[in-house]
């Protein structure tokens, strides 16, 4: 009889689930590999004090599958994976734990490549990198992109431009109004790019120090955190939390476009349909926030990470968003669904190409 774990894996056709354990350093980690049709599985390493093992397995599987779609839609030759470490990043993180995890990842021989996620930092990746070359978001000095907030911000702004083109016929930011929720790593850089391009920006953050520093640097308007989503603007740009698009918030939105970096913005998939019914164009989060992963993956190109080359690739998020909006319009489906269709079609195409090529090799 199948175990619960196999049932979970069968649900979305996962390839592998690796459990990594080393009692002497307090390491308990799970690496989920969803689909490697396009190439090795890419995904961050998350450290979180999960209440139960089931929660950790569930998170690893869910996040690995999301990475398959993110990589496929972004045109990467990588599949989806994720590593979760069951630990409290404030209390349990040690060099020994990180290096041991690095060794486990190395043992997979490149099946899984990883970088920073919730609860881990560039410095942690540099420690893991001592044990494995398959750790990517290290500093530029070590051949990686370093902090990926700026590259993620570039992708978000490209997404905003593509949406503006679809709604107003021009991608110009000059004179367009944008409400940015959260001015942390990504949001701060989004604001800088928007202001430079002549947009009228309003910001909010629960951290008053961050708000004050961004407002002073760019002269943007500040509103309280609970008012940012309701601003009458062209674009609402969530760069803080997930699930901000829900039954309560959507009827209160006064924007034409939602495009931001926050992960899992739709509380449920049906909220993507609800946005459509309200006449709001939604740029799927996993498409527009792929800049960080694209930067990390660039490290595998000849000569290691090159900022200019990575930025050129990230700038193509504009074309991806354009393409998925066109598909959504042609097939009368919401944009979140169109993004999934794009990703699924690309995986199916590569699967077919690979089967043709292996057929040719046999001849
Ligand atoms: N950093 C990346 O490369 C990257 C890549 C992909 C996706 N993302 C996602 O983008 C989002 C932002 O990432 P980040 O790296 O800038 O994180 P961050 O922690 O640096 O910034 C988040 C900011 O949101 C603020 N915030 C929290 N709750 C808020 C609220 N209710 N209202 C307003 N502001 C609030 C925080 O104070 C913080 O300043 C996250 O959802 C993250 O998962 C980030």
UniProtKB/TrEMBL annotation:
Domain of life: Bacteria
Molecular function GO terms recorded: nucleotide binding; oxidoreductase activity, acting on the CH-NH2 group of donors, NAD or NADP as acceptor
SUPFAM superfamilies the record matches: Aminoacid dehydrogenase-like, N-terminal domain (SSF53223), NAD(P)-binding Rossmann-fold domains (SSF51735)
Residues at which NAD(+) binds: 182-187
Gene Ontology biological process terms from the UniProt entry: amino acid metabolic process
Record's keyword terms, sorted: NAD, Nucleotide-binding, Oxidoreductase
Domain Glutamate/phenylalanine/leucine/valine/L-tryptophan dehydrogenase C-terminal: 146-355
Active-site feature positions: 82 (proton donor/acceptor)
InterPro entries: Aminoacid_DH-like_N_sf, Glu/Leu/Phe/Val/Trp_DH, Glu/Leu/Phe/Val/Trp_DH_C, Glu/Leu/Phe/Val/Trp_DH_dimer, Glu/Phe/Leu/Val/Trp_DH_bac/arc, NAD(P)-bd_dom_sf
Pfam families found in the cross-reference section: ELFV_dehydrog (PF00208), ELFV_dehydrog_N (PF02812)
Annotated family: Belongs to the Glu/Leu/Phe/Val dehydrogenases family.
Entry-linked PANTHER family: LEUCINE DEHYDROGENASE, VALINE DEHYDROGENASE
Protein's UniProt name: Glu/Leu/Phe/Val dehydrogenase
Native organism: Ktedonosporobacter rubrisoli
């Amino acid at each position: 009889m199948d175990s619960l774990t196999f049932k979970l894996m069968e649900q979305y056709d996962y390839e592998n689930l690796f459990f990594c354990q080393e009692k002497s350093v307090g390491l308990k980690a799970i690496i989920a590999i969803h689909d490697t049709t396009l190439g090795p599985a890419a995904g961050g390493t998350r450290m979180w004090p999960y209440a139960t093992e089931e929660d950790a397995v569930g998170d690893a599987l869910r996040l690995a599958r999301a990475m398959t779609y993110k990589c496929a839609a972004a045109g990467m030759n990588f599949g989806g994976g994720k590593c979760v470490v069951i630990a409290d990043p404030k209390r349990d993180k040690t060099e020994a734990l990180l290096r041991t995890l690095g060794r486990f990842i190395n043992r997979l021989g490149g099946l899984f490549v990883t970088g920073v996620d919730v609860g881990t930092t560039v410095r942690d990746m540099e420690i893991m990198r001592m044990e494995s070359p398959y750790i990517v978001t290290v500093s530029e000095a070590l051949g990686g992109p370093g902090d990926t907030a700026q590259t993620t911000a570039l992708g978000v702004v490209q997404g905003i431009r593509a949406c503006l083109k679809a709604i107003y016929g021009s991608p110009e930011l000059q004179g367009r109004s944008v409400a940015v929720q959260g001015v942390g790593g990504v949001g701060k850089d989004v604001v800088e790019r928007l202001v430079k391009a002549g947009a009228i920006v309003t910001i909010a953050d629960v951290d008053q120090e961050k708000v004050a520093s961004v407002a002073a640097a760019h002269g943007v308007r500040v509103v309280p955190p609970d008012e940012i989503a309701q601003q009458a603007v062209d674009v609402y740009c969530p760069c803080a939390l997930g699930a901000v698009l829900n039954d309560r918030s959507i009827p209160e939105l006064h924007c034409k476009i939602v495009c931001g970096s926050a992960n899992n913005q739709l509380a449920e998939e049906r909220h993507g349909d609800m946005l459509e019914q309200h006449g709001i164009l939604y740029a799927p989060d996993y498409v527009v926030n792929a800049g960080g992963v694209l930067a990390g993956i660039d490290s595998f190109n000849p000569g290691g990470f090159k900022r200019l080359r990575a930025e050129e690739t990230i700038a193509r998020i504009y074309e991806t968003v354009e393409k998925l909006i066109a598909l959504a319009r042609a097939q009368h489906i919401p944009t979140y669904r169109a993004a999934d269709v794009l990703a699924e079609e690309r995986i199916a195409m590569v699967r077919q190409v690979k089967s043709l090529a292996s057929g040719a090799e046999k001849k």
